[in-house]
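Protein Record: Sequence and Backbone Structure Tokens
======================================================

Structure line: whole-number tokens from a learned vocabulary of local backbone shapes, matched to residues.

Purpose: to set a sequence beside its fold so the mapping can be learned.

___
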Amino acid sequence: MTRVLLVDDEESLRLALKTHLRKQGHEVLAVGGADEAIAAMEKEPAEYVVTDVRMPGGRSGLELLLELRRRWPATAVLVMSAYGSNEDALAAIKAGAQDYLTKPFAPSDLAFMLRKAQEREALRRENRELRAAVARDHKFDQLVARSEPMKAMFATIARVATFKTTVLINGETGVGKELVARSLHLRSPRAAKPFIAVNCGNFHENLIESELFGHKKGSFTDANADKRGLFEEADGGTLFLDEIGDLPLGLQVKLLRTLQESTIRRVGENIDRKIDVRVVAASLRDLTKEAKANRFREDLLFRLNVLTLVIPPLRARKEDIPLLVDHFVGRFNERLGTEITGVDPQAMRLLCDYPWPGNVRELEHAMERAMVLCEGTALQPHDFEGKIREPSDPIAAELEKGNYSIKKTTRTIEEILIRRALEKTKGNRTRAAELLEISHRALLYKIKEFGIT
């Protein structure tokens, strides 16, 4: 039985709708204003709220809608608006209402709208279940992928996680090096102990030693008390040293000694302290080249490089992009309270064609931005930034697809130029045609041909 909360200041309408919906098998509570509705929701939340947009005195239906979306995001809100006030109804839709009815209407119209809302919710539930099933099949801890290189890396992680072996992770910015390190930790016997991550490039050379190894009170200015370093904090667990190539050469010697002897010495002390820490390191740089250039100690590289995991960039595993997009849709729907059901096929093609220099992190940020801006239930091309919609080098993009056709490549460049001209002129087609040096009629034809809105 569906629980419905009716909110309207007209008592006769409330009674008529309540009677009809109860005959349809719904459990219905009817109240006369927004404050009563909030009180009813606090007592027992309804699955659906049907509210008038304009109610005299107190909060309006739109204010009620915003409160409901904030506090009860799982509740579907339907709005009623008087004839001639469609602007109010459209504002409510933009604020998150599922549907609206224009007064006057028959009670059966509302019953029909509720059935549609229930069908949409059933579809969303089915989508969530399918998404969860796909995630289970292609999720490895917090990592999501279906490509062969990533699946091979997952298998390696599973094999080596139980050992204390030092691991070096290589990969570009944003590929998920820390997630791989966390996965190694979570699948190891150390999972119940601390996992501590530190970016070696975030600290001044004079502070990183104290941060890693700790210090004794009075050992330097501002050392007002004894301090445990991150190695001690991670005792029994895992220490992830990101961007280890930024570690000063002098400190690399101390790190090598720690890895070899499993001891640390705090700054200003003469005693060694025994530790049990697994070190996982990562670098954006090629440490072999750094060692040859004498910017990284070769002996430390040998000690770190017992096992190397290389995370391929996102542009090299494009089959993972739809899976990641789906993953982020589910995550941000939950976090933002949005109800995005998917991605338009053209938008998905754009996402798969874009090279993602910032890798998975850039895709994540792009998805969050698009879902905040999206006014419908499916992400469209215009919800994404211009750099994603248009390849920076259209010819290179076509060649990468294996397309050497002059005709097809020319069409791609034409479309990009037309879109940019329209953006520059804020949609003024006459001015855009002048910039493009074509006739207004030719521009209208091209706009229709390329499906530009």
About this structure: The chain has a mean pLDDT of 87.
